[in-house]
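Researcher: We're teaching a course module on how sequence relates to structure. For the next exercise, students receive a sequence and then see the predicted structure as C-alpha cells, so they can try to spot secondary structure elements on their own. Here is the exercise chain.
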Amino acid sequence: MLQTWFLVGVSVAYLAVLFAIAFYGDRRADAGRSIVGRGTIYALSLAVYATSWTYYGSVGRAASTGVGFLSIYLGPTIMLALGWLVLRRIIHISHRHRITSLADFVSARYGKSVRLGGLVAAIAVVGVVPYIALQLKAVSNTFEIIRRAPAVTPSSALGQVPVLEDTALYVALLLAGFTILFGTRHLDATERHEGMVTAIAFESVVKLVAFVAAGITVTWGLYNGFGDLFSQAAQAGHTALFTLGDSTGTWVWLNVLSLFAIVLLPRQWQVGVVENVDERHVKQAMWMTPLYMLLISVFVLPIAAAGLLRFGSGAEADTFVLTVPMAAGLDALALLVFVGGLSAATGMIIVETVALSTMVSNSIVVPTLLRRGYRGRLARLILVTRRLSIVAILLLGYAYFRLAGESAALVSMGLVSFAAVAQFAPAIIGGLYWKGGTRDGVMAGLVGGFAVWTYTLLLPNFAVTGWLPRGFLDHGPFGVEALRPEHLLGITGMDNISHGMFWSMLVNVGCYVVVSLLGRPQAREQAQAVLFVDALDDPTRPRLWRSHVPVPALHDLLVRSLGHRAAAKALDGVDLESDQDADPDLVHHVETVLAGAVGAASARMMLTSIAGEEQLGVEEVMEMLDEASQVAALEERHRLARELHDSVSQALFSMTLHARAVELALHKQGGDPDGPVARGITELRGLTQDALAEMRASLFQLRPDALREDGLAEAIRKQSAAIASREDVVIAVEAPGYRLSLDDRAEEELFRVVQEAVHNAIKHARPGRIDITLFEDDGLIIEVSDDGTGFDPATVSSSGMGLVSMRERMRRIGGGLVIDSTPAGSTTVRAVLPSAAAGEAR
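Model: And here is the predicted structure for the students to work with:
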C-alpha cells in the first residue's frame, strides 16, 4: 500500500526534477551552449502531443473500439510525413516575421487584423480549457486511485474530493509557478524557452519509458506474450479489440482531427513553430516523432485486453494502465505509471498555458490597451499580463474539471478540444496556399464554425452535466427536433464528434470560400498574401509605409514597449539624435522587433499611432503587389528562360545555321540561286531568324533582373533590339558606354518609362523610326522621339496613353516627365531625373 505522504513526496520530487532540468537548460542557453539545438530534442518536444489523453485514454478507447484508437496516432504521422511541405513553410514564415503564436500567424496573414487575432485567441482559450481540465482530471483521479491501493477503486466511485484536498488544485498551482518561472522570463515571445523545452523533452522520455514498461510487464509478466494474451481475450468474448469498432466516417474524421491537432493545438504550435531553432530539424521529426508514437501505441491493445480480462467489459478502461499493475500487486510499476501519467499531464499544461498566455496578452490585452489610448510603459505590463493569464487559464481548467469533467471520458473531452482547434485549419491552410483568402472570409468562417462547434459539441456536454435541461439534447430547443444539437436537420447515424465536425467544417469552409470570393481584399491583405503563399520563393517585403516616422520616435516607442536595453540592441548602429525620418527598412525592422514582443497586429497599431498611414491609391496598391510578386516569381522565370533557351532558342539558331549551310552547298554545286529550291531555303532562313529574334525578346521579358546584370543603358539597347525585330521598326539608341550610377529602384522605374513610351509610340503614332537618347546634364535625361503622328497633350484625358503611369513612376524617384508633341509633328517624351534625385539614387 502506497501512503499518501509518499505519493505527495514523489510528485513534488518529480516536479523538482523538472525545475532542475529547466534551470539547467536555461543556464546552458545563457552560456551560449544550447541543448535544444539538436533535432532529437525538437522531435521529443513534439511528443508533448501524447498527453494523459493518449497515455490513459487511448487504452480506454481501444477497449471499446479496438484498433480504432490508432487514428489518434495515424493523423499526426500523416501530417509529419508532409512536414517538409506544411510545417516547414509555417516555421519559415514565423521565423521571418517573428510570429509569436497561432493567433498572431492568422492575424499577420490576413492584413495584421487586430480583431481577427483576438477572435482566434478567444476561440483557442475556450476550446482548450476542456483539454486542460482533462489533464487535471487525470492527475486527480489517478492520485486518488493509487493512494487507495491495494483496493482498485473506479474513478466513478471516488466522488468529488473536497477542493482543499484535491491534488489537481495543488498541481495546477505548482505548474502555474513553473510556467511563470520558465515560460515568461523574456518579454520577447519569440525568444526560445530552452529550459522549458528541455524539461518537456525529458517528460516525453519518462512517459514513454513508463508506458512501455507497463506494456512489457503486462504482456510477458502477467501473460505469455501477445499470442497468449490475445487468444485469452478472444476466448473471453472480447473480439471487438481486434476490429475497427468505429464506422468508416468516424475513423476518417478522427484521423482528420488528429492530423490538424499535431500542428494547430496551441502547445504544438509553441514547440513545433515558436521553439524551433532550425528548419532542418523538421526532417528528423518527420520520422522520429512517428516512431515515438509507434512505440507508445504498441502496448495499447495488450493493456486493454489485460484490463478487460481482469475487470470485465463494464470496468473503467481509461485507468487500465494504472489499475492492472495495481491489481497484480506491482506497486513499483504502478508508481512508475503514475509518474508517467503525471509527466504526460504536466507537460501539456506547461506548454499549453505558455502558448495561450501569449495569445491573450498579444492579441487581446495589448490591442485593447492601445485602442483605449494607453501611453504608459508596456514592457512590465505585458509580462504581468502573461503571468496572470497563466494562473487564470489554469484555474479555468480546474473549474471546468470540477463542474463538468466528471461527466465525460478522457477521450471525449480531448476530442471536443481537437474539434475546436480544427476550426483554424481553413484559415491556416488557405492562407498558405491561396492568395484569394480574405480577412472577412476568415472571420465569417471562424465565427460560423465555432458557433456550430459550441452548439453541437460544447453545449451537449453542459446538458449532460445538468447545466442545461436534458430535453435540449433529446428534443431540441423549444421542442424543435430538427435543431437537436447531435442530430441537426434530422441527420442520424453519426457519432457526436463526426456530426459536429461535419457541420462545423461545412459552415467554416463554406463561409471562408464564399465570402472571400465575393469580397475584395485590402491592399495590405494582398501584400501579406504574397509574402505567405510565396514564402519559400523568398519574396521581398512590400513597402507598406507611406508616412514620415522620425528616428527618435521609433526609439521612444521601443523603450516604452521593451525597455532601454532591448531598444538599444534593436537600434544598434542607428543615429538616435538624427532629425531625419526613418527609411522604410528601419521602420520595418522596428515593427518586426515589436512583433516578437506584442504580436504583429499590436506592433502595427503601435507604429500607426506614432506615424499614421496615408490612404493608398490604386496605383500604390498595384505597385506594392508588383514589388512583392516580382521577386517571388523570379526563380520560376529564370527556370523557364533557361529551358526556353536550351530547347527552343538553340533549336532555332541551329536551324538558321543549317539553312545557311544548305544554301551555300547548293550554290557551290551549281544550283540555280533564283530557283524555287534556293528561294525556299532563303525564305526558311529568314523565318527562323525572325523566330529567333522573337524568342530572344521573350527571353528578355522573362529575365526581369537584366537591369541588375547589365545596367539601364544596356538593358534599353537589348529591349529595343527585341522590339525592333518584332515590330519591324527602326529603333536607335544613343547612350553612354559606361554603367550609370543608379540604384535598382531608379533603374527599374526609368526602364519602365522608356518601355511604355516606345510601346505607346508604336501603338498610336505608327512611326518608322524611334530614337532613344540617354545623357547626363545636371542629372539624367532620357528622350524617346518618334517620326510618327503626333497629338495635342492638352486634349488627351488624364489617363490616356499611359501618361499618368509614366508621370507617377518619375514622381516616385523624384523626377519629372515632359511631353513635346503636336498633331502635325513628331513626339518626344522626356524623362528628367535632377542631379539631387540622381544622387540619392546612387
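Model: If you want an answer key for the exercise: Residues 539-544, 613-640, 642-647 have pLDDT under 50 and may be disordered. The longest strand covers residues 769-776.
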